[in-house]
Amino acid sequence: MLVLIVVIALVVLLALYVIVTYNGLVSLRNRIENAWAQIDVQLTRRYDLIPNLVETVKGYAAHERETLDAVIQARNAGMAAQSPHDKAAAENQITGALKSLFALSEAYPDLKANQNFAQLQEELTGTEGRIAYARQFYNDTVYRYNTKIQSFPGNVLAGIFRFQEREYFQADDESRGPTQVRF
């Protein structure tokens, strides 16, 4: 009788462990989806601000067509990207293009003094901060999730229930550094 109680207790404990671990993995997976949605919201805000910024700059620096085209092309690539890897690559292009665009304001004092340009630049700067925070939260959540599905014994359950690793949203080295502008 005592053996039966011990066996039942072990089965119940094992079942509880499986349930808790599975629910933890589901929770982390959903947190990743939510974090990705927050990144997407901020990126969409950025995409919406870029055409207004480009139009403002066009009036002052019409002959800087190459820079303006690069910003629009980078924006379009960002809007078309789907996976975190593709999104990150597109966002790196946008960051570099925007750095070049903002550097133009140094060469055009009238543009730099333009209220609309200053407001758009401030909004984009704020959006960049929110994107950075959303990326950090996403990557932290991916880290916790990937660690949990790679660690024993969670990896056994993750394999059984087909939980897949997620990729990080990473900036490349080029988008992190200063922009070189030549006139």
Could you please describe the fold and organization of this structure?
Helix content is 83%, strand content 0%. It is built from 7 helices and no strands. Helix 1 (2-60) runs antiparallel to helix 5 (115-150). The model is unreliable at 175-183 (pLDDT under 50).
Tell the overall outline: rod-shaped
| Total number of distinct structural domains | 1
Query: How many distinct helices?
Result: 7
Largest sheet data:
none
Average of per-residue pLDDT values: 86
Distance from N terminus to C terminus (CA atoms, Å) equals 88 Å
Q: What integer value in Å does the Rg equal?
A: 24 Å
Looking at the overall shape, the CATH architecture is: Up-down Bundle
SSE pattern: HHHHHHH
Beta-sheet strand percentage? under 5%
The CATH homologous superfamily name equals: LemA-like domain
Question: Helices and strands in order, then pairings?
Answer:
Blueprint: H1 2-60, H2 65-80, H3 84-107, H4 109-113, H5 115-150, H6 154-160, H7 173-176
Helix pairs in contact: 1-2, 1-3, 1-5, 2-3
Provide a compact summary of the structure:
The chain has helices at 2-60, 65-80, 84-107, 109-113, 115-150, 154-160, 173-176.
Features:
183 residues, mainly alpha, de novo design (two linked rop proteins), 7 helices, rod-shaped, disordered C terminus
